[in-house]
What we know:
The chain is mainly alpha-helical and 73 residues long.
Amino acid sequence: xxxxxxxxxxxxxxxxxxxxxxxxxxxxxxxxxxxxxxxxxxxxxxxxxxxxxxxxxxxxxxxxxxxxxxxxx
Length: 73
């Protein structure tokens, strides 16, 4: 599954793949495979990115166009 928003949101924040890889405690090569859809990004990594970007996982994977994160209870 190619998650195009991963690249879009990263570039909107002027981050490199290496920057995001550090946040996820992985390599740039591994993160590149997530963006290209070669490897499936683990749910725990999506959670980290959603928190970092202050959005929802649904937004990151393209299930919604609403950037605002869900309300936490």
